[in-house]
Amino acid sequence: MQFYKSDLLNYLSGSISDTDLLEQLTKLGLEVDQSKKERNDLLIKLDLTPNRGDCFSLIGIARDVCALNNLKLKLPKFKKQQQNLDCKKTIAIDKRACSSYQGQIIKLKSKGKIPAYIKKTLKAADIGQVNPIVDITNYIMLHTGQPLHAFDNKKIGKKIYVKFPSKRTKLKLLDGASHEISKDYLTISDEKEVIALAGIMGCANSEVDETTQEIFLESACFDPASIRGNARKLGFQSEASLRFERGVDREIQEYAINFAGQLYAEIFGGDFSTIFKQSRQHKAKKILISKEFIDSRLGTEIPATKIIKLLKALEFKVESKRNLMELTYPSHRYDIEIKEDVIEEIARIIGYDKLPNKRLKLLASCPEDASIEKETLTKDIFVNAGFNEVINYAFVDSSFIQVLGLNNNPIELANPISSNQDIMRSSLLPGLLNNFEYNFNRGAKKFRIFEVGNVFTKKESWKSFAGLLFFDKSSSDWSGSLQSSFFDLRKSLDMFFSRLNIEPAYNKASIGHLHPGLSAEIKIKNKFIGNIGVLHPAIQKKLKLPNIVLFEINLDSIKLPKINSIAQPPKFPGSERDLSFLISKEIPASDFIKELKKVGGTNLRSVSVIDVYQGKGIDQSHKSMTLRLFWQASGATLEDKEVDKFVANQINHVAKIFKAKLRS
Amino acid sequence: MDLAQEKKTFFNKFKEANSQDSLNSLKIEYLGKKGVLSSLMTQLSNSPAEKKPKLGKSINELKSLIEESISLSLEKIQQTALEVQLSREAIDVSLPLKPDVGSYHPVSLIAQEISNYFKNKGYVLREGPEIESEYFNFSALNIPDNHPARDMHDTFYFNDGNLLRTHTSPVQIRSMELESPPLKILCPGKVFRCDSDQTHTPMFHQVEGLVVDKDINFAHLKNEILEFVESFFKDNPKVRFRPSYFPFTEPSVEVDIQGKNGWLEIMGCGMVHPNVLKNVGLNPKEYSGFAFGMGIERMTMLRYQISDIRMLFENDLRFITKG
């Protein structure tokens, strides 16, 4: 809603400075979006909330300002025009959808010329001039909030129906657009056809034009529920629908018609018919409220007299009933339905800032969401490991997903904001690769980035955690070169697992987007939780990317560690043995170690790989692996003989299982 | 036995001994078991008894002199050697290094700061799904179908009728359905609206607080917000509460702080609408509550003086690592 201060002042019985007015409007909840000084006047643009349909009018805004300043609202009175035009119109309304329908036939005596003050009001509201007949209806609407519609009376029939159509109907609106409407659209029809979409826009078939000499002026009140959403479904919003959707004062129809009548008489000269009317009995809503309830919800002690005065200023009718107040809502306020709405009115007029503040003493205690705790911990660990967190949009480009071969049943958005954000991400990797590309193109050489976020497939959604590692050769400096191999990234991931007290298994696997020889699936207790590896060379080539290492795991399938007891470290010296084996190169170290542990006894504390060698002196199908095994007992020093026994067992065992030969 | 001559001979050799090795050999030559001094001692035992004491004393004096000279010289040589080593090992300590510094995304930093603040006040963190139903995102929050308030949310839809949540408020509903009052929860998370310009991105983050119990009133809400603003904005800005409209709160409030160029909107809040309480099976006559919600990007932009929200999602490493 946009208007000049001078128009508003017509309704105030007092003056108010520009600054005060602007501040007051915002404090009333009528947020000032913009204001501009213009030749002795102030142009004000309000950003109105959907509950305040009444303030899409100068009278409505003035009413609030008066209530705040304890001023009386100055409403000009309009006389009924002399009704000497003998015409007939029958009106029938659907009372489920329309509370009042009034109309008057006006025979215009001359071509009117719109005076400057009307032009100024229309211009302020950004409403273009159409023709003098329509300009007046818009002017009245801006003042009263009542949308009026002028039909060319020669183009419509003698009967007016406010009704829902019995079947789908094609029509052409004033703006020239054709639509086919369903039975949910309230229409104004004559005997033959639809002549207007009620509360939204008139039809071209009954449009007023230069040659129009006689109009039928409609001033109606359609229920918000029967208008709501209909204009939007057709793809637009009109000044009328904006107001009807939010609610138009149920009692202002005749006032608006008489206001218009005076202007048509002044500007065109005219003969007027009687006002044809149909209406539904309306029972004003009432509510009982107590001062105690108001105080309990606001944390206040407001004297009853003050409450009553304040509500009366807002045009509530107030009657005392024992300890309660019985309120009748004003006809222009559609947003007041319950006691809390009344409380807001009181708070609003007193001023939110003037209401008291009180410390909340409530302490509720329930356990924290483990998922949030896990996410925070994950981020902490990776940030401490030198990784940079990124946050990407949850929607990605479906074609990019296809290039990566990550196409696992993604969910499509029905109304994507752009074609390259058309599906929900089923993986965080596209985002990380985009981040890589963006930064690489801007000269970044070192990439250690990660993201935690939800991913989605048609079946389910889960919290994912992914990371990307890449160091360009030129990122090295005097201190040495940075490495970004499979194992460099796995090390960070292992640190993460180790912090969570989890022992993952890395198994060779074939994963679409990763290099088959430089990738692994990650399992915890035999359950697949993710993968890690070098981006597949074919994808690298297609996307012109270098040797990037990536991982992605399902964070939901990882559990936070339970609190364990901390065991005392053994006091007695341990015993260490280095063993070199010759085994087939296909045997994973993890399997080999697992078998060594099986027969190593309970005192075998650790097995580490000292060296892996393939090459000269060793058959191509084999590798030499040197392991360091460490035994330590908690109660006594281990005898060499005991350890020797385990070692002998281990050598036999792996010889049997892997055909492993001990190298001397 | 000519001790003077022995002494002269020693010092001639000593002068020549410049290394640790030569000194050590000299030491063995004179002070070793078969050394010069031990042979002098043997000669002494063969000397006439009356000469013995004086001669013995002289030999001992010579021995001490040799011992001292050699050890002093050895010490000096070691000292020099150490100095040479230290100087050889010296490095340019000013050489620049590039430490592997990790970083949180600025939005994460602010989300954590806000979450930690409210956690310390006894709020419990809660999260909910990003893909929501109409019910949780709208209907349960008192936003009926076709209501103009739905225009305030440009919603992303899926073909099955579900949607991307437009605010974190559905988590309120989910929490109230699961737990009974007293409730004091905080829900941070991603939200989505079909909108993109300098101040809007199609995805952003919100954090929402909810308190429900008996006798919770507007004064509590105001105080809670004032204390938060005081903690978050270190320069203690002026705060303004003004009426607004959200279908799920009544009264509804918009909170502004005084900035350099006028008021800045920072959050919306209000008393939980009785219909919302009813929707989760709570009796609004018995319980009341307040809720507040803010955009984390907005708070991030205010904190770091960022003017274009889209910068936060370009993930330019020169930008997002500086929080």
Q: Would you kindly provide a written description of the structure presented here, covering whatever features stand out?
A:
- The complex is a heterodimer of chains A (664) and B (323).
- In chain A, 29% of the residues lie in helices and 28% in strands.
- Chain A is built from 19 helices and 30 strands.
- Chain A is elongated, with a radius of gyration of 40 Å.
- Chain B has 2 domains: 3-89; 106-320, BirA Bifunctional Protein, domain 2 (2-Layer Sandwich), CATH 3.30.930.
- Chain B contains 12 helices and 9 strands.
- Chains A and B meet through helix 10, helix 12, helix 13, strand 18 and helix 15 of A and helix 5, strand 1, strand 4, strand 5 and helix 8 of B.
- CATH topology type of the largest domain in chain A: Phenylalanyl-tRNA Synthetase, Chain B, domain 3
Number of helices of chain A: 19
Level-1 CATH class name of the largest domain in chain A = Alpha Beta
| Largest interface, C-beta within 8 A | A-B, 87 and 85 residues
Coarse structural class of chain A: alpha+beta
**What is the beta-strand fraction of chain B?**
15-25%
CATH superfamily grouping of the largest domain in chain B: Bira Bifunctional Protein, Domain 2
Shape verdict of chain A: elongated
The secondary-structure class of chain B comes to alpha+beta
CATH class of the largest domain in chain B: Alpha Beta
The strands making up the biggest β-sheet of chain A line up spatially as 18-21-22-26-25-24-23
| Total of domains of chain A | 5
The structural domain count of chain B equals 2
